[in-house]
Amino acid sequence: LRDRAYVTALSINLGNGFASFGLRSAIIPLFVVKVLGLAPEWAGYGALASALVQAPLLGRAGRVTDTKGRRILGAGAAFLGAGPSAVVGDITGGRREGPVVATFQMMSDVGAIAGPLIAGAIVASTTSYTLGFLTGVAVLLVTFVMAATMPETLDRAKAQAATRPTPDPASEPG
Predict the structure, then answer these.
(1) Is 54 within 8 Å of 76 (Cβ atoms)?
(2) Mind listing the pLDDT tens digit for each residue in 26-80?
(3) Backbone φ, ψ for residue 144 (5° rounding)
(4) Among 118, 141, 163, 168, which has the highest number of CB atoms less than 10 A from its own CB?
């Protein structure tokens, strides 16, 4: 936790879990049905539309992250997955760092659990979906500021790759 880029990646994954998994899966369907008065299947149509928009962006997000840098300033969940994951790869330097990766993944899980609980409690106590959604906006805003000011790790990854010995195919078993 001494690496600011890693702390930023953890925070972004928490925010992504909170908003993308938590609010989108639990609060938005209720909003669609109770506030907008639409049939429940419309929540599914919205999720499908979101997936259809994000799917073609995933490859681009990975390419941009690998060429332009790890600062995750792109819009959408496609960039929220590629950038922080690349940061974790950069800070581990290709070493087996199970606890580092596990903690990173766990932060998304914590966000996915906390998002509906916190936003749901706000909606239930205030009857305001707006306040519930603003909670997600606040969490993502903090992660955006952290990402915009974090140290770039792409150069670190390139330096590690340059110093890593290239495997000799002749010495490979088989």
Answers:
(1) yes
(2) 899 999 999 999 999 999 999 999 889 888 888 888 888 888 877 665 556 667 7
(3) -65, -45
(4) 118
How far lies 77's CA from each of 24, 56, 88, 168, in Å?
11, 12, 17, 39
8 A C-beta contact, residue 38 and residue 120: no
* Cα-to-chain-centroid distance, residue 49: 19
Cβ neighbors of 55 (< 8 A, separation 6 or more) are none
Looking at this protein, which amino acid is placed at residue 98? G
Which positions ≥6 away from 42 have C-beta within 8 Å? 32, 33, 36
Distance CA 34, CA 129 (A): 10
pTM (two decimals): 0.80
**Side chain identity, residue 65:** T
Alpha-carbon radius of gyration of the chain: 19
Distances (CA, A) of 42 to 22, 24, 32, 47, 109: 18, 13, 7, 9, 26
